Amino acid sequence: MAGSAIGLGNIWRFPYVAGEYGGAAFIIVYLLACAFIALPIFFAETVIGRRGGADTFGSMKKLAPGSGWHRIGLLTILVPIIILSYYSVVGGWSVHYLIRSFGSGADDAVGHFGPFISSVKLPIIAHTVFIALVAIIVLAGVKKGIEKFTKITMPILFVLILAIVVFSVTLPGSGKGVEYLVNPDFSKLSADGIAAALGQAFFSLSLGVGTVLTYASYMRKQDDILFSGVGTAVSDFLFAMLAGFAVMPAVFAAGISPEAGPGLVFETLPYIFAKMGGGLVWLSTGLSLVFFATVLFAALTSAISLLEVGVAYLVEEKKMHRRTAVFSLVLFVWVVGILCSLSFGPLSNVTIFGDSIFDTLDKACANWLMPLGGLLFTLFVGWRMPSADVLDEFSNGGTKPLNRKIYPAVRFLIRYLAPAGIVAIILSAIFN
Ligand code: TRP
């Protein structure tokens, strides 16, 4: 679950969204959204998935037979596949930058990003390579593919990002970046910013689209839901902050605006690595390789979770062969991903309410569809499932005293606070 949570959302999305909405103040709201809205949803999805023991459709059919609740399954098949389509494009960018680490020049680092993403061939090839890697891992199955890959890469990830943070905060001029992350300026925080913080919390914790639910269906009965949720949320937040401290000081040291948008990480870091090498090509290359390998690993462990939701559905409900399921979903992702990639170039004039195809899909998912899914999951667990069943699942049949003790608080969050919070933020975003 941590592998699913920690990904491009932390390294690529978090720094630039935090940068757009004012840094530290945004982070505080984000932290609150994680603790009081996202975490309860995480619990709700875990309870449904483990008790139902299947994908969203199957779990809902088992827990609420004869009702219409299983229709949420539709949302949880479509949305992850759409997210994966644009996620894979950004995953492709990290493949490109990983390869570009070899013999990359310092001088054109900042200017490279724009022309690259707006070109046609290279980003599409990179997207194809990325989605092919995802397919190979998911084809190998849950235990031998997903779990094994994640268990090996996650610890490496933490070590790598720590090393980069140490480099980044010791750069001359980096102090401003650290300040930006810890000194809140609440005047910069708008209703938009609050909605974006919630969207980021959903995105980063992989919520509202059945990813957590599907992974939870593979959990053992003795596993602790409270520990899994808190552990995932804490490591995810920690990783986002580490990524922030790796990227922001470098942004300021390089003299780039923190509001630079989606290109932030890709523009800043190659520049910094070139400078840090101090003319030693092997050093710049090495640093860049390490960083983009980190990005790529993190992206892969998340992307496989996005694909697995749909695969689980097709295999369990439609009795499809795992291979057929993977191939058909990947084909869809590949085609939509190409459109997303082209929306930075030849298709940039195709806009929906002023946003490009890429931005439209990202905003539709993160700001609307994920919160909607989260809302439905909390309503189901809070109001439809018998409380005794929820407690039974949350405390492993009453064998976890701590879980039993804090259950009333968790129940309150799931029943009232999380749904109310989501609705309030969605409404304020509409009226803004
Ligand atoms: N959380 C992942 C990240 O931060 C992305 C992700 C994986 C995701 N599964 C998801 C996002 C489900 C939304 C929904 O990169």
Descriptive keywords:
globular, mainly alpha, 432 residues, binds tryptophan
Distance between the termini: 34 Å
Give the averaged pLDDT, no decimals.
89
Radius of gyration: 21 Å
Strand content: under 5%
| Helix and strand sequence | HHHHHHHHHHHHHHHHHH
Ions, cofactors and other ligands present here are: tryptophan
Largest sheet: none
Count up the helices: 18
Structural class by sheet pairing and helices: mainly alpha
Give the proportion of residues in helices.
Answer: over 70%
List low-confidence stretches: none
The count of strands amounts to 0
Question: In one word, what is the shape?
Answer: globular
Overview of this protein structure:
The protein has 18 helices and no strands. With 432 residues, the chain is an all-alpha fold. The two termini are 34 Å apart. Bound molecules: tryptophan. Tryptophan binds next to helix 1, helix 2, helix 5, helix 10 and helix 14.
